[in-house]
Design goal:
The structure is a single chain. The chain has 3 helices and no strands. It has 108 residues and is mainly alpha-helical. The protein is globular, with a radius of gyration of 17 Å.
């Protein structure tokens, strides 16, 4: 098509490390994708369910469960945990696919 331009960009771990000082040997999904940092254990066993060992400090985003590239997943989970911990009434409704996952025993 006239006027359509295609471009390619390749990013390496070194590029990410140079741009983001806190992501040494990391990835754009934040953190390692190994068995100790996946699923419910993301990012580690001290920070499960979006809570950290530091009182009133929570994690949300690609570095927390369910991980990178799950659109709004970590933010949704963090919002729910915050509402529970602070005793705030949730003004949002749970999406049907989340309700179905809970019925199968999957945590959020």
């Amino acid at each position: 098509m006239p006027g359509l331009e295609f471009q390619r960009n390749m990013t390496t771990p070194a590029d990410i490390e140079n741009k983001f000082a806190n992501m040494v040997e990391g990835s754009y999904k934040q953190g390692a994708y190994d068995s100790t940092q996946m699923g419910y254990w993301r990012p580690n066993d001290d920070c499960l369910n979006h809570r950290t060992p530091i009182n009133n400090l929570y994690l949300g985003g690609a570095s927390s469960y369910p991980g990178g590239l799950v659109t709004f997943g970590a933010g949704y989970g963090t919002a729910n945990i915050l509402a529970e911990d602070l005793g705030v009434e949730k003004w949002w409704t749970e999406p049907d696919h989340i309700t179905a996952a809970r019925a199968k025993g999957m945590p959020l």
